[in-house]
Task: structure prediction
Amino acid sequence: MNEGIKARMHPSLPLTPNVTEEGGRHWTDDEVRALLCVWADRSVRERLKSTLRNKCIFQEMARQMQRKFGVVRNWKQCRTKYKNLKYDYKTAKSAHAAAGSGAGGPGRYMKFFEEVEAILLNQGLENGTEEMQKRLYNGDVTAGQLQTPPGNTRSITTSDNEIIIEIEDGGHY
Result:
């Protein structure tokens, strides 16, 4: 059954078009950052290295990207981007080697080169996702995660169990 039809039948399911239907929508830098943060997790890296049948791993990665970063991509899109990042990394590494050391670093040939290299070579990622977030967001571990929208906020506690948060929107509460 088509995912779009399923989502209409079950409103709780997010509408995530399948790759062939949408023609492979380009990934934004923030979406790539979210994928890199999830991929950097030690357990994800180990599972990806240890199995060839990895659909369930990419399904979990897609769920984590949505839950932690608000990025909605399906497992096939995540798998394709993962494979493309690995291919681009190898290509950039080869291009750098062919050009010689005077041509600048291999990062010149690929965006996010250093981050992909850190993941593939297991460098400086003891805390996995947290370390990758520090790299990608200049030390801010909470950057990229779902947060309250910008604007002035105030919270009012009405009882022990209830908090009301109001977000200012153009001067109106």
Q: What stands out?
A: Confidence is low (pLDDT under 50) at residues 5-10, 146-173.
